[in-house]
Design goal:
This protein has 16 helices and 22 strands. It is an alpha+beta fold.
């Protein structure tokens, strides 16, 4: 870090009034604080970060008087020796506003060496991660996920002790076996059905020699996997507003809610159906033809749900958590337990040649698991994210927004904005009728929300809102000119 970068960084913290996600400031007037080891662990287990000693946060990020940079450098090095693995920051002394401060850059620990923890506290009590401007202790689940990154998980290859081959769906299993013989005639052409399902890890022999479905086989090809794993399902919820807290008619917090069960191919289809049912489908006229334009491209939604089920965490600790599909007024969110795995990061998602599968056996099975109406669940293995990006781009929509933590991965689609050509074929006879319809599904809305939901300009919405207030059809919720102004339907007395 050079002098200018240090000045810019401290100026930024002065403006926001606190530390940042990637920078921790400590006074260290006489000694280094004990919790500096928490920060060393947090930065090491995350994306790295910078520690600045000799600057007072509570006094407005000014240099500390009589700060001994050399002594603190030795003290910080000693704290690094208390970590497992040992932290090796780059440490330098830089001038700042007439004084010297200590700047230490802590690099991210290689994945194979994580978690980095305070030796005396142990792995499960002494591992931290950076959250906002503070350090948070990792849960046991999160520590286990970091350890899992060191090797290939095999939870999808676990046998299900209570299940038998009768728990597999013949309507899915038969075409699956036929597809294996078709694709690999030299290997499976003359082998028995039993040999094929064992070879593909759909089933395994247990310690007693009984052939039982694996977790991956049951999820992909089972009749009712939730009989054995009740929470390995999908929940779909359509919320009326942009948060989960908004209500409808002062009672209902959602417009639709479904628990979706069955094998993976059926869950994908049912979840896609739930999204289709609850989203708006506009229409445009192209020449002499009418073209339906949904809020979210069906192919992109299908791919997102399939990826969530294929790549989610199936470790015993995560089997109580489901895949969630949440629809809001302005976006669609697909969320699954477990963050990105292996070499894949947010920055490399969709990059050709970079892919890692947490559930390698399940992924392999899903490549030839048929949909009831044709095709296979994973026809774009390694390129699924590219398909999503292409579908959104073709619909002139924003790129997907991924988020990954140790606990979960989510993919968010912004709702498609209506085009000018769609306004001419609106289902509503007037703009005011459209506003009434929109407000009838929520407790209130602001001008921006109404504009986004209707596809009309803010100026158009504002003009009609004024007219509707005069007619006593709607009313503001805040005083005039309030930046928090919202509008609601006037209730009949």
């Amino acid at each position: 870090m050079n002098q200018r970068e240090l000045n810019d960084l401290i100026l930024q913290m002065r403006q926001i009034g606190n530390d940042t996600q990637t920078c921790e400031v400590k006074e260290s007037r006489k000694k280094i604080p004990e919790n500096i080891t928490d920060t060393l662990s947090a930065f090491s287990n995350g994306e790295g970060g910078t520690i600045i000693l000799g600057v007072s946060e509570k006094e407005g990020f000014i240099p500390v008087e009589s700060f001994d940079a050399r002594a603190m450098q030795e003290a910080l090095s000693a704290k690094c020796d208390l970590m497992t693995p040992r932290v090796r920051p780059s440490i330098e002394i830089l001038p700042f506003e007439g004084a010297n401060v200590l700047v230490a850059h802590v690099p991210a620990m290689p994945v194979k060496d994580q978690p980095c923890y305070i030796t005396t506290k142990g792995r499960y009590q002494g591992s931290y991660i950076r959250t906002g401007d503070g350090d948070r202790k990792l849960t046991q689940y999160e520590v286990d996920r970091l350890i899992e990154e060191r090797s290939q998980p095999t939870f999808d290859d676990d046998t299900v002790p209570e299940a038998t081959l009768d728990d597999l769906d013949k309507n899915l299993l038969t075409p699956f076996i036929s597809r294996q013989r078709e694709l690999h005639p030299r290997i499976f052409g003359t082998r028995s059905d039993e040999d094929i399902i064992i070879g593909m890890h759909v089933a395994k022999r247990d310690d007693d020699g009984t052939i039982r479905p694996t977790l991956g086989g049951l999820l992909a090809l089972g009749l009712f996997p939730q009989q054995f794993f009740p929470r390995l399902n999908i929940t779909f919820t359509a919320f009326p507003g942009v948060t989960k807290s908004e209500v409808v008619d002062d009672s209902r917090r959602f417009l639709d809610s479904q628990t979706i069960i069955g094998p993976i191919p059926l869950m994908i289809e049912d979840a896609l159906g739930a999204v289709t049912k609850n989203m708006r489908t506009g229409a445009i006229i192209e020449g002499a033809f009418r073209k339906d334009v949904p809020d979210y491209p069906r192919k992109a939604v299908r791919e997102a749900i399939a990826n969530a089920l294929m790549h989610r965490d199936y470790s015993p600790d995560a089997r109580g958590s489901q895949v969630q599909v949440n629809m809001y007024a302005d976006r669609l969110e697909v969320l699954n337990p477990g963050g990105l795995f292996g070499s894949v990061t947010i920055d490399t998602l969709g990059t050709i040649g970079i892919s890692s599968s947490r559930n390698q056996f399940l992924s392999n099975i899903l490549e030839t698991t048929p949909y009831p109406d044709g095709g296979y669940v994973v026809e774009n293995r390694g390129t699924g994210y590219q398909v999503i990006e292409e579908q959104l781009q073709a619909a002139l929509m924003n790129p997907p927004q991924p988020k990954s933590t140790l606990s979960f991965f989510s993919l968010t689609f912004d709702k498609r904005k209506m085009t000018a050509s769609e306004k001419t074929i609106s289902d509503y006879p007037s703009v005011e009728d459209a506003i009434i319809k929109l407000l009838s599904t929520r407790t209130s809305a602001n001008t921006r929300e109404l504009a986004e939901l209707s596809g009309l300009s803010r100026s158009t919405i504002t003009s009609h809102l004024r007219s509707m207030i005069k007619q006593n059809v709607i009313e503001p919720t805040e005083p005039a000119r309030s930046p928090k102004q919202r509008y609601r339907l006037v209730r009949e007395q």
